[in-house]
Write a structure and sequence with these properties.
The complex is a heterodimer of chains A (about 270) and B (about 450). Chain A has about 270 residues and is mainly α. Chain A has eight helices and no strands. Chain B has ten helices and 21 strands. Chain B has a five-stranded antiparallel sheet with strand order 1-21-20-3-2. In chain B, strands 4, 9, 10, 11 and 19 form a five-stranded antiparallel sheet that branches. Classes of the chains: A mainly alpha (about 270), B alpha+beta (about 450). At the A-B interface, α6 and α7 of A face α2, α8, β7, β10 and α9 of B. The complex binds protoporphyrin IX containing FE. Protoporphyrin IX containing FE sits at the interface of chains B and A.
Chain lengths: ~270, ~450
């Protein structure tokens, strides 16, 4: 089996798992959620093998173009989800979360994305490519989980206001969002900012050039710093925190897509 | 003075600054930075003037943006310091006597009687907390004994270390900005250039471009030799991502190019009606060569690396890359030009020759060699090590702030009629659940002890 077949199988399994997950939401049959989780897991294994094959075949890290890095981000998001699910048992977030993964996989497999592995331009030939991109994307994957739990928070809160009970309490969702950001923020700082600066210094001779991609990473970072400060120092919680977390993930997405397609700069390759 | 301090220590100011700096940074990514006024005018029309006046065209180096960063730094410093002193006191001179009401207001607390003497109860408690890696402070006053058990107190300082890291990074940035130096040195092979502001020289021994099989560039490699006082010291091959560091300078492979001033060309001459005829000519542009038996003087008038005909029907070189090398050749017979025209190395059948006189000769531009030049960027950045130090603080602080949650347990022991009353409470700003679990196991095991 080649890499693209494996990728496709993983994609299909993710879609199937979303079906089971949503069936669970509507029917409340626990078994359905378990099958959903199991399917994600099997899909994840196929996906992992696909990424390994890609690395072996191309001889470089599997995130040097948009197709590869989207696929990697989807993969990292599943890891983040499995970790958070293991810790907090939030089955109910599964279906919504799978929507993000499926969206990433769908964009990655769209015909607009060139898929062939191209040889690396000189600037990318460095082990810092591994460190910088994988740690940053893993951090962003945790922001993605926080994004989902924050949206769920807003829904739960509005339900609770009307006196209805929500299956996961809004309080718990709020605290899960915080925990995700507490994991994502240090990872993003390390991968995106620190490793980014080190690599930029090694490759270009200056650790910071106010390149649009750098600036947008900084903006993303500032939004999450705002989240932490309003929460820790001013005691903001709930609704306002949820909005900041949502905005932060959107900023991360813009750093990732928007900058590539709308603004050109040094980072124009990936 | 006090009110200024209060202003700068407020986290509300920090939040306002977060929002302003973020918005300004966004503007800077929407307006392309560092272009020329005509480019801005073409793009933004009348707004261009306003943009340049507000320094939006070099926003990140504008006085107002740097001013914002300065306020931000001041905010961090003052805010962190005003909170640091009480925290240091709490760490090194903790209150060793506490009122029961301090404990009663806590969320994690317990109160029970143990049928043991105070000393025995105390020792049991101490043992339990020690096995859980707490540090204990003990104090007795009147008939009460106070125990303070704490661990991972360093976590209180996580945020301060993060902020210290940020200030260090900003300081490094200022030092780079003021003391930094950057210059491109353009070498052709064999050149020795002195490095500005340094007492040594560099020679480019060799420059190579490596290609992938599909023709894309794989790497550029320059072999450099460092010269001091006219003596060669050592050599190193630098490539992208592998610079040379020497005496505070770092040398990067920055760019490369071709020196098209005087390429050597190889031209093959054939005869259409005589397959056995073959001549190889090696010559430079402008050089005349006599083809003996043919009574012909041959020369190349121009060479262009990337032949292109533009909209105005002019022949130009579209780039400095040898994408479509072409030579303009001429043939003479006794001061009479008998042919002239373009030949192309990539399209040998597509020669465009105008002949005044019939000739059977055909010409191919077979090969060319031109000097390469290699652009080496010399950088001296005295701030960079400070930046790495700041980054280390930043990561250490984040690890402490998020993954080293400090815990405190306060216990009051009071003996009456051979029994001991235990009043205990726990404080954790983070991971309260973990403390609660730990607290409960300790208290339960004490209560159960026989
Ligand atoms: C980009 C800039 C900044 C970053 C990355 C940053 C980072 C952090 C982090 C990671 C924490 C710990 C949060 C936690 O424990 O969950 C923190 C706490 C804090 N920050 Fe910042 N900070 C920044 C700027 C500022 C500024 C400008 C102020 C000035 C008022 C400030 C004031 C505080 C305060 C008061 C705390 C709580 C301190 C404590 O727990 O004792 N921060 N900051």
């Amino acid at each position: 089996m080649n890499e693209s077949t494996l990728f496709l199988i993983a994609f299909i399994l993710y879609i199937v798992s979303a079906f089971f997950y949503f069936a669970f939401l509507f029917t409340k049959i626990k078994k359905s959620a378990q099958i959903g989780f199991g399917t994600v897991f099997v899909g994840f294994i196929f996906h992992t093998v696909a990424l390994i094959l890609r690395t072996v075949e191309s001889g470089h890290a599997p995130f040097t173009n948009m197709y590869e890095s989207l696929s990697f981000l989807a993969w990292a998001s599943i890891i983040a989800y499995i970790i958070i699910e293991g810790k907090f048992k939030i089955r109910k977030a599964g279906p919504y979360f799978m929507l993000i993964v499926i969206a990433l996989m769908a964009v990655a497999s769209s015909p607009l994305m060139p898929k062939e592995a191209t040889p690396l331009v000189p600037a990318l030939q460095s082990y810092w490519l591994w460190l910088h991109v994988s740690v940053t994307l893993l951090g962003e994957a945790f922001f993605a989980v926080a994004f989902i739990t924050s949206i769920m928070y807003l829904v739960a809160e509005s339900k609770e206001k009307k006196g209805k009970k929500h299956s996961i309490s809004s309080k718990k969702l709020d605290s899960i969002s915080y925990r995700c950001i507490a994991i994502g923020f240090p990872l993003f700082t390390l991968g995106g900012l620190v490793f980014g600066m080190i690599w930029a210094y090694k490759a270009w001779g200056s650790y910071w050039s106010w390149d649009p991609k750098e600036v947008w990473s900084l903006i993303t970072w500032f939004v999450f710093a705002l989240y932490l400060h309003t929460r820790i120092v001013m005691g903001w919680k709930g609704r306002r925190s949820a909005f900041i977390a949502i905005f932060g993930f959107l900023a991360a997405l813009f750093t990732y897509f928007g900058v590539n397609y709308l603004i050109a700069g040094l980072h124009s390759y990936a | 003075m006090k009110s200024i301090l209060r202003f700068f220590s407020s986290v509300k100011l920090a939040i306002v600054l977060f929002i302003i700096i973020t918005s300004a940074s966004i503007v800077g990514t929407l307006i392309p930075q560092g272009q020329t006024l005509p480019e801005y005018t073409a793009r933004f029309g009348q707004l261009a003037d306003l943009f340049t006046r507000l320094q939006l065209t070099d926003l990140y180096h504008s006085w107002w943006f740097i001013g914002l960063l300065f306020f931000f730094a001041l905010n961090i410093i003052i805010c962190t310091l005003t909170r640091l002193i009480p925290k240091l006191n709490r760490t090194f001179k903790p209150k060793r006597v506490f009122e029961p009401k301090n404990i009663n207001t806590l969320k994690i607390k317990e109160k029970f009687n143990k049928s043991w003497s105070l000393v025995k109860t105390k020792e049991a408690l101490k043992k339990e907390f020690l096995t859980k890696h707490y540090r204990l402070h003990e104090n007795s006053k009147e008939n009460k004994t106070y125990l303070l058990a704490r661990k991972k107190i360093a976590g209180w300082f996580g945020a301060d270390i993060v902020h210290l890291g940020l200030i260090t990074i900003l300081t490094g940035g200022i030092i780079s900005g003021i003391g930094g130096f950057k210059k491109n040195l353009t070498f052709t092979q064999g050149d020795i250039l002195s490095v500005p502001q340094a007492n040594f020289k560099l020679r480019l021994d060799k420059f190579e471009t490596e290609y992938y099989s599909n023709g894309n560039v794989r790497d550029w490699k320059s072999t450099l030799t460092v010269f001091e006082e006219e003596k060669p010291l050592f050599s190193k091959i630098i490539e992208v991502n592998h610079p040379l560091s020497y005496k505070g300078f770092v040398f990067y492979q920055s760019s490369y190019g071709w020196n098209w001033e005087n390429p050597s060309l190889e031209i093959w001459v054939k005869k259409r009606n005589e397959p056995s005829f073959f001549r190889k000519l090696n010559l430079k542009v402008g050089e005349k060569i006599k083809l003996e038996d043919e009574d012909l003087i041959f020369s190349v008038a121009y060479f262009i690396p990337d032949f292109f005909i533009n909209e105005k029907n002019e022949i130009i070189s579209r780039s400095l890359e040898p994408n479509n090398p072409a030579a303009f050749i001429e043939g003479w017979q006794e001061n009479e030009k008998i042919f002239s025209g373009w030949i192309f190395s990539k399209f040998p059948d597509y020669a465009r020759i105008h002949s005044q006189k019939e000739t059977n000769l055909s010409f191919e531009l077979k090969d060319f060699t031109a000097g390469n030049f290699s652009v080496i960027q010399a950088v001296r950045d005295p701030g960079v090590n400070i930046i790495w130090l700041g980054c280390s603080f930043l990561m250490l602080g984040l690890a402490l702030a998020f993954y080293w949650p400090p815990r405190e347990v306060k216990i009051i022991l009071e003996e009456s009629h051979g029994k001991t009353e235990v009043t205990a409470g726990g404080i954790a700003s983070k991971s309260k659940d973990a403390l609660q679990a730990e607290f409960e196991t300790v208290m339960t095991s004490i209560r159960r002890l026989k």
